[in-house]
Structure prediction request, 283 residues.
Amino acid sequence: MPEGDTVWNTARVLEKALQGDVLTGSDFRVPQLATTDLSGWTVAESASRGKHLLLRLTRDGETPLTLHSHLRMEGAWRAYAPGERWTARPAHLIRVVLRTARSVAVGYHLHEVALYPTADEEQHVGHLGPDLLGADWDADEAVRRIAEHPGTTIAEALLDQRNLAGVGNLYKAETLFLRGLWPWTPVSGVADLAGTVRLAQKLVASNRGRWTQTTTGSLRRGQTSYVYGRRAQPCRRCGAAIQKDEKGERITYWCPRCQPRPAENPADNQAGNSTGKPAESSA
Prediction:
């Protein structure tokens, strides 16, 4: 999943392939940049901010520029040697091609592709919360931002990039399972919000530098997660069937036994539904 660690890893791939080199050509297959030519620009830095990828470009006498892209669910960048076949995805998914004397970087199915002065970066990513993998990661600030909206569910709070940048559906689901939290628990009902934030950051950081994402500690196929991607499979702790709720790109997996719905009154202990989903979404 293209979450904070994937974007960080992708930034390192582009750093190795492009940083310090002068672009010999560029090809933008998005309408807003179709006529843009970055030949002669030097790739000064490849950086990530949460789920956003930032390629910073310089050229003598010119205002520094940032090429900004977002991977969302399907995006990817790949680096090839000149003359090597581009085999990662079908050609019709290519959105950006950047060439240097020693490498070619190809961006597939990218979103939010934009080019703007580097000085304006904060206008585009300044709204993001503390970056889970950034040098300026601030857990206290992330907790403060989440706590400002006590009625928001903890699942939505973790996904909100304005609170903390880098958590997606995978790390959301795994964090909540490990904390024993029902995904629709309001922020106000989370006893240890700081502990939840710290765990989310720890999980994302643990996969920095590798492409196989694991929260269980195992890298073996089918054993890398506790609940994510395991609908109807037995919980690794209690054996109950893992549940899945899907609304657009918001996908939630959870164990109804390990992550029970908090009881609002004594009757809830007997009247709760078997899946643990909120009543309003079970129809």
About this structure: Confidence is low (pLDDT under 50) at residues 265-275, 278-283. The chain has seven helices and ten strands. The longest strand covers residues 42-49. Strands lie at 25-28, 42-49, 52-58, 65-70, 76-80, 94-99, 104-108, 111-117, 243-247, 250-254.
